[in-house]
Write a structure and sequence with these properties.
binds N-[(3-hydroxypyridin-2-yl)carbonyl]glycine; about 15% helix; mainly beta; Jelly Rolls; 15 strands; Alpha-ketoglutarate-dependent dioxygenase AlkB; oxidoreductase; binds fe (iii) ion
Length: about 220
């Protein structure tokens, strides 16, 4: 990422929603069935689990990971691990369709190339939400995060650099992609709830993929 790109307008269909927040509405839609198959394969190897946060609460969203690292949380805290503690094995590899999609996101957003070593996969059902948080467990916080929404719509909360900043609500739809970088990378964010009708591939749930360079 060059300093120059901080001020360059985003190309193509990309919308700049905030300084450092680029949206590519529906960009992942053509990949829908391949992505669904890939996620299904990943969770065969590394099944959905509800992790415990250090305070003792169990997260309402279920998670899995793929890539060289996976995000885990337990009573000792949040971190990335090369081993899935549930299976005792390495995480599944990043599937090819993820790499293909990322190459297109890089092209459309002007922010690539993305070199993720992990993809955290969140699954939300009707009851799930994600409280306002920052993503700060990655070693180098300069790397952008790419987020892909699949399935049912969700109300996404977009705050600022501190918990006190005002929070906007953004409706994330099936296939929507967000790229966060530089000035927005550390903004507080969360998921209030799911909305709208069931989805042909994902039913009443929503899946979110976040690609990160964590190690
Ligand atoms: C979600 N996303 O969309 C939750 N974190 O379900 C995140 O927590 C997130 O979208 C870091 C970067 C991008 C994200
Ligand atoms: Fe996050």
């Amino acid at each position: 990422m060059s300093t120059l790109s901080l001020f360059a307008p985003a190309p193509g269909n990309a919308l700049t929603l905030d300084e450092g927040l680029i949206a590519l509405p529906g960009l992942a839609l053509p990949y829908a069935s391949a992505l669904a198959q890939a996620v299904q394969d990943i969770v065969q190897e590394a099944p959905w689990r509800h992790m415990q946060v250090p305070s003792g609460h169990r997260m309402s969203a279920a998670q899995s990971s793929c890539g060289q690292l996976g995000w885990i949380s337990d009573e000792q805290g949040y971190r990335y691990s090369p081993i899935d503690p549930q299976s005792g094995s390495a995480w599944p590899a990043l599937p090819l369709v993820f790499i293909d999609l990322l190459a297109q996101i890089a092209e459309e957003s002007g922010q690539g190339p993305f070199l993720p070593d992990t993809c955290l996969i969140n699954y939300y059902d009707e009851q799930a939400h994600m409280s306002l948080h920052q993503d700060r467990n990655e070693r180098d916080l300069q790397h952008p995060i790419v987020s892909v929404s699949l399935g049912r719509e969700a109300l996404f909360l977009w705050g600022g650099a501190t918990r006190k900043d005002s929070v906007r609500t953004l409706r994330l739809r099936d296939g929507d992609v967000l790229v966060w970088w530089g000035p927005s990378r550390m903004n507080f964010h969360g998921i209030r709830r799911l909305e709208g009708p069931a989805h042909p591939l994902w039913g009443s749930g929503r899946v979110n993929l976040t690609f990160r360079r964590a190690g």
